[in-house]
Every structure is written in C-alpha cells, then in structure tokens.
Design brief:
Length: 282
C-alpha cells in the first residue's frame, strides 16, 4: 500500500494486491500486482495532484521487486489518470464490463420465452441451488473453481480458507448449483452499497451440457441479487471486447448492458510493453 500524507494527516492511499502464481502444468512462476480503482482520498484532498505520486511510488516499488506485471482495473472514469499512466509506461487496453439493471425490470422480464421455458424445465429435472456454508460444500465449490480456472492463467483462485471466511460475512454469498447432489455450478457474489458483484463463477458445461449449468448458474446469481434488493449485478470480468467473445455474448443474453473501460498494464520485460503499445495503438 502507498500512503500520501500532508501535515501528518493521511490524504490518500492506494492498495495493490500481490498474487504469487505458480504451476507445474502449465509451467509458470511469477508475481502479478492488481489494483482495483484509483485509491481512496480525503474529502478535501487534491486527488489530481496526489494520484500521480501514489501511482509512481507503487510502480517503482513493484518494479524493484521484479513484479512480472501490474494491472489497474475498475477505474471510476475511463480517462482518469491517462497522462500519468502513459508517462510511466502503462498500456491502456479496452476491457469489457457488463452490468444488469435490476431496479427497472425483474430479471425474468429481460429473458426470452425460450430461456424461461428452459430454466423451468431444468428445475423440474431436479436442479437446485443452496448457499455453501458447510466445510464440505465450500470444499466442493472450491474444487470446482480450481478445475474451471486451471488453464486460465490470468484468473487467480484464493485458497479454501478465503471462501470459508467469505461465508461468514453478511456481504458475501457462495452459492452452489447441484444435480443429484453433484455440484455442477457455483458462484461468489459480493454485495456493497446497493449493488451486487459477481466475483467468481464456474460450471461444468461440457460434462452436463444437457442440464445447461452455465445458464442456471448465472440465472441464480441474477435472481439472488434481485432478492437482496441490489440495484445492479456487475460482472467483474467479461474479457476483451472482441467480436468473438463467447462469454460476453452469453452474459448479454440475460439482458445486460456492455460498458468498455480501460485496464492499464505494465510488464517488467520492456519488450512486452513495446509489443502491447504496437498492438493497442490509440
């Protein structure tokens, strides 16, 4: 964490999470730093003057620690800090975010008749859901996440203890989708300031293709968020805004709205930054 002070008073702070990633298959070993947002600032602080100082301090510190890459996401404004990021060698990459509005229409009102019929059919087949609160359910859910994200190198799955602690919070829910007591899907949702954030989701789409576990998982997340009186459900990572982004198109099928924002990346090897600058020219 970088902290800015003025006359012994904290006027700004920026938190960065370090992920130490390693695997035998596929083989890799590196450290990844991720900051969510531009930091927190005192009400009377000059954010435009403090933000560049915090950003520079964080960048220099992580570079000295040989951090493979630094990532900034979920900035409050798309162009916030643009000049400062570019000065320090960061590359802006357009990133897709999706949110579903829950206050103007019920989730089912945004579905097609075919989707509604399919969901009802799956329920009749015996698909059900429940919050994962017991150690056994959390273990099964964690195994699902690990297997689902095993080959997705960018996605980090915390250890099982993390999800156990989340299950005790009133602002978080781990939910599993089951069929004949087999976990075929699940998700983790965070609730804050009237909004829901889908942090993790996983499903055995290929194994149980006839049961549509992907649809049932996302539908349950939407229904749950609406029951929790959330105004919106935010999908925290819909990936790059490519034409053939199948996950994005799948999520949009539930009536969501796409928003493109910048994510900022800075890699330790300069050659990667140069390549990204060339690929993602303004």
């Amino acid at each position: 964490m970088a902290v800015a002070t003025q006359e012994n008073k904290v006027v700004g702070q920026m938190l960065v999470i370090l992920y130490h990633r390693k695997s035998l298959f596929p083989p890799y070993l590196y450290t990844h730093a991720h900051a969510y947002g531009e930091g927190l600032y005192a009400p009377d602080a000059e954010q435009n003057a403090i933000f560049p100082l915090l950003l520079r301090s964080i960048t220099i510190h992580l570079h000295k620690r040989l951090c493979f890459y630094i990532e900034f996401s979920r900035m409050s404004k798309k162009m916030l800090g643009y000049r400062e990021f570019r000065k320090l060698g960061y590359v802006p990459i357009a990133w897709q975010e999706i949110h579903n509005s829950l206050h103007s229409k019920l989730p089912q009102e945004r579905l097609s008749g075919k989707q509604i019929a399919m969901i009802e059919k799956m329920k009749k087949k015996g698909i059900s859901c429940r919050e994962a609160t017991s150690p056994e359910d959390i273990h099964r859910y964690h195994q699902l996440l690990k297997n689902y994200y095993r080959l997705k190198i960018r996605r980090f799955v915390p250890d099982e203890t993390f999800f156990q602690k989340l299950s005790t919070s009133s602002n978080a829910r781990n939910v599993i989708i089951t069929y004949k007591d087999k976990v075929i899907g699940g998700y983790t949702c965070i609730y804050n300031q009237g909004n829901a954030f889908l942090w993790f989701s996983a499903f055995k789409r290929k194994t149980y293709i006839h049961l549509h576990p992907d649809t049932m998982t996302i539908w349950q997340a939407l229904s749950d968020a609406q029951e929790q009186d959330a105004q919106h459900l935010h999908f925290m990572d819909a990936g790059l805004p490519l034409k053939n982004n199948l996950y994005r198109e799948f999520i949009l099928g539930f009536g969501g709205k796409p928003v493109t924002k910048f994510r900022w990346f800075r890699f330790y090897p300069k050659v990667i930054n140069l390549l990204l600058h060339w690929l993602y020219k303004d």
